[in-house]
Amino acid sequence: MVLKATVNCDLGEADDEALMKTIHLANIACGGHAGDFATMNKSVRWAKEHGVLVGAHPSLLIARALVDDELVACFVSQVGSLCGFLRMHGLQLNHIKPHGAIYGQMARSDDLARAAVMVCKIFSDSDHQVAFVGLAGTAHQRAAEELGIRFIPEWFADLEYSPSGQLLITQVHASVTHDNIRARVIAILSTRVLTLMESSGANIREVTICCHSDTPGAVGNAQLVKSLVDESNRVAGF
Predict the structure, then answer these.
(1) Domain 4-236, what fold?
(2) One biological process GO term for this chain (predicted)?
(3) Integer distance in angstroms from the first to the last C-alpha of the chain?
(4) From the CB of residue 168, how many other CB atoms can be counted at a distance below 10 Å?
(5) What is the pTM (predicted TM-score) of this model?
(6) pLDDT tens, per residue, the chain with 238 residues
(7) Which helix (H) or strand (E) holds 212?
(8) How far is CA 186 from CA 6, 126, 130, 225, in A?
């Protein structure tokens, strides 16, 4: 089986306009770890120009653990801000993908993941559902399925995974060679890399591959991943 794939990027920290030309999904920082009214407005405008689907990339606003209700409110304040700019430019919110450490914590906590996915429900309506992007076979996927929200599994082209398949999230993203990226992407598109996640009960039919905007050589990395994804989708008839 070949996976239908897209390329996504966490934006709001680097050369967003150049990256917007090479991706399918944009995760736009909306005031937590990065992003303000100017960067959100520019990013949404560029996404519209290049036909890119826009997602919110919320983070924690305070340096302490939040209870579930606080987390929902924290995310709603950021996502709502981005939605204002989407409405201004005539676009809809496609998905939500939490940022950084909270993304990893939610993968291990059903309660936190459920709180984040609840934000997708808040911004969905009868005509349009907001998806959740996360790690397959984790609390991310369980929460989305429990709450009836479309789940988009994610894999990272420029981060390392442990031998057990756990994502290793780092504050600083080291450079990655194109040979390593090519090998990783080809592996995931053939589903060989997803065997660990599948063994945990994950139902995998699609994948979105992330390239970080603050990784050295980000634009070239994204261009390489996009070319591999486009070719795989073409051959598979997607």
Answers:
(1) TIM Barrel (3.20.20)
(2) carbohydrate metabolic process
(3) 13
(4) 10
(5) 0.91
(6) 667 899 999 997 666 889 999 999 999 999 777 778 999 999 999 999 999 999 999 998 765 666 788 999 999 999 999 999 999 999 999 999 999 889 999 999 999 999 999 999 999 999 999 999 999 889 999 999 999 999 999 998 877 766 666 776 666 666 789 999 998 898 888 765 554 454 454 556 789 999 988 888 899 999 999 999 999 999 989 8
(7) strand 206-212
(8) 13, 37, 29, 9
